[in-house]
Amino acid sequence: MAPLSVDSLRKSYAGREVVAGVSFALKPGECFGLLGPNGAGKTTTLRCCLGLTAPDSGSITLAGEPVPARAREARARVGVVPQFDNLDPDFNCAENLLVYGRYFGIGDALIRARIPRLLEFAGLAGKEKTSIRVLSGGMKRRLTLARALINDPDLLILDEPTTGLDPQARHLIWERLKRLLADGKTILLTTHFMDEAERLCQHIAIMDAGRIMVQGSPRELIAGQIEPQVVEVYGEDAPGWAQATAGQFSQRHEISGETAFCYVADAAPLLAHLAQHPGLRTLHRPANLEDVFLKLTGRELRD
Ligand code: ADP
Q1: Ligand 1: does its nearest atom lie under 6 Å from the Cβ of 18?
Q2: Could you tell me if residue 34 is inside a domain?
Q3: What angle do CA 196, 74, 179 make, to 5 degrees?
Q4: Which residues contact 179 (CB under 8 A, 6 or more apart)?
Q5: Does the pLDDT value for residue 229 go beyond 80?
Q6: Are residues 200 and 249 in the same domain?
Q7: I want to staple 148 with a disulfide (CB 3.0 to 4.6 A). Which of 79, 112, 195, 259 is the partner?
Q8: Which ligand 1 atom minimizes the distance to the CA of 46?
Q9: Which atom of ligand 1 is nearest to the CA of 36?
């Protein structure tokens, strides 16, 4: 049984559809990434899945329960890491876990027995009595992750788990999420970091304007959605050069700032041409998930 399945989900705010017919299903044990630029509808989708926002239509089954009808029962079997840390600053680390566990009706003795192992998992061993106020951003995220595990869930839902963290803190979170996957947990995460998605996710859905545009493994998306090679050209009016030679050496090009991104099946003719233009510098690399994402969702800034 799918830990979460969503069929034809729709949600409008003030007459604008922000989730416009979204369907997907998670396989047990996989990490499923919901990707999209700001405003794509990712958080609204997650909130509907958890029964925190009422959908206009569509059906959701979470942990075997229909949502929103039995959302509370479903949530008791799922771990949630929200986008913004909502730890209680008036409580210490252990108290935060205790209060959260009680919310699910877990007895104090069982919660207390779980706390040392959860803090150890979060890299916070021995910090039971430490105030939330002195924790770094990375520590707070890890404590929120530990808190999400208090009910020993099979499915974890994480909304942008590493936004705002420095590279060291991000790597530590990734390592912990990989451990959870190795233990057989299923993970649904939203992110706009392509390296995060490529590293962690077996399955990716790219969403924009309330719709899922494509779904598949990172490898499938790269192979199916984009030319295999990219030559980034910059220096000495690269955009002007790209306009002048459009279509001659590359299937497709995009301009971003002072860089021309040339997408090609075979880079050799383009590289030979560029060798005669020493003012232009180049970076030749395989296409990646970010190229797919930018092709599908565009390069314009989203607020
Ligand atoms: P994402 O998580 O992909 O950034 P969201 O689901 O947060 O996207 O938002 C999708 C759109 O819905 C945005 O335009 C946002 O402003 C709007 N939106 C989200 N929640 C509400 C709300 N409670 N009331 C009105 N508009 C909302």
Answers
A1: yes
A2: yes
A3: 35
A4: 121
A5: yes
A6: no
A7: 79
A8: 6
A9: 3
224 neighbors 289 (Cβ within 8 angstroms): no
Residue-wise pLDDT for 150-190, tens only, equals 999 999 999 999 988 899 989 999 999 999 999 999 999 99
- Tell me the residue length of the chain: 303
Q: For a substitution probing ligand 1, which of 6, 34, 44, 190 has the most ligand atoms within 8 Å of its CB?
A: 44
Structure-derived torsion over alpha carbons of residues 270, 272, 278, 279, reported in degrees to the nearest 10:
-10
SS3 106: coil
Which is nearest to 7 in space by CA: 69, 81, 52, 67?
Answer: 67
User: 136-150: b or e for each residue (b if 16 or more CB lie within 10 Å)?
Assistant: eebbbbbbbbbbbbb
For residue 85, pLDDT over 90 is answered with no
How close is the Cα of 163 to the center of ligand 1, in Å? Answer: 17
In a domain, 97, yes or no: yes
pTM of the predicted model as reported, rounded to 2 decimal places: 0.93
pLDDT of residue 203: 98
- How many C-beta atoms surround the C-beta of residue 275 within 10 A? 10
The rounded distance, in Å, linking the Cα atoms of 57 and 55 is: 5
Residue 276's domain comprises 227-286
* One domain, residues 200 and 245: no
In a domain, 297, yes or no: no
Residue 210 CA: nearest ligand 1 atom is: 10
* Gap between the Cα atoms of 100 and 105, Å rounded: 9
Q: Give residue-wise pLDDT tens across range 230-255.
A: 999 998 889 999 989 888 888 899 99
Q: Residue 206 sits in a domain of what CATH number?
A: 3.40.50.300
- Mark whether 117 and 177 lie in a shared domain: yes
* Gap from CA of 18 to ligand 1 centroid (Å): 7
Q: Which two tokens stand for residue 59?
A: 């059906």
Cα–Cα dist 271/146, whole Å: 50
